[in-house]
Amino acid sequence: ILFNNLMGLFPYIYTSTSHLTLTLSLALPLWLSFMIYGWINHTQHMFAHLDPQGTPAVLMPFMVCIETISNVIQPGTLAVRLTANMIAGHLLLTLLGNTGPSMSYMLVTFLLVAQIALLVLESAVAMIQSYVFAVLSTLYSSEVN
């Protein structure tokens, strides 16, 4: 993920992690394997995870529904987070890059400095997003044990 994110910062190279199909194809098998492993090997723990400790009896059916929905949307949120953050930075760089020809010399130098600053920021975002994907995947796997 880090390599794909950083490669997308070079000109004329498309960031493949800005496609929802790629990020979902990374997140969904991970989540599905964690869930299948958990339900086969730790069934009691998985059922206990659906009802948090200390929940009043009246709220238990609602909490089971909420926790089930929360578990089901995990791969989608993981994929959309990576995709949206990668698209946002590239879109900003593209929009700033397309306004250059219609500006005066003074504004062009400011625009160049702004684009370099955004490129540094985009590099940090590329690294942070790959780290977040890895940490959240690890967190989802630790819920199974």
UniProtKB/TrEMBL annotation:
- Could you tell me the keywords of this UniProt record? ATP synthesis, CF(0), Hydrogen ion transport, Ion transport, Membrane, Mitochondrion, Mitochondrion inner membrane, Transmembrane, Transmembrane helix, Transport
The way this protein sits in the membrane is described as: Multi-pass membrane protein
Q: Where in the cell is it found?
A: Membrane; Mitochondrion inner membrane
Q: Name one Pfam family in it.
A: ATP-synt_A
Q: Does the keyword Acyltransferase apply?
A: no
Which Gene Ontology CC terms are recorded? mitochondrial inner membrane; proton-transporting ATP synthase complex
Q: Does the keyword Transport apply?
A: yes
CDD domains the UniProt entry points to: ATP-synt_Fo_a_6
Instruction: Name the residues that span the membrane.
Output: 20-40
According to the UniProt entry, its GO molecular function terms are: proton-transporting ATP synthase activity, rotational mechanism
Described purpose of this protein according to its UniProt entry = Mitochondrial membrane ATP synthase (F(1)F(0) ATP synthase or Complex V) produces ATP from ADP in the presence of a proton gradient across the membrane which is generated by electron transport complexes of the respiratory chain. F-type ATPases consist of two structural domains, F(1) - containing the extramembraneous catalytic core and F(0) - containing the membrane proton channel, linked together by a central stalk and a peripheral stalk. During catalysis, ATP synthesis in the catalytic domain of F(1) is coupled via a rotary mechanism of the central stalk subunits to proton translocation.
How does this protein assemble?
Answer: F-type ATPases have 2 components, CF(1) - the catalytic core - and CF(0) - the membrane proton channel. CF(1) has five subunits: alpha(3), beta(3), gamma(1), delta(1), epsilon(1). CF(0) has three main subunits: a, b and c.
What does the similarity note say? Belongs to the ATPase A chain family.
What protein is this chain from?
A: ATP synthase subunit a
Record the organism.
Drosophila littoralis
State which gene encodes it.
Answer: ATPase6
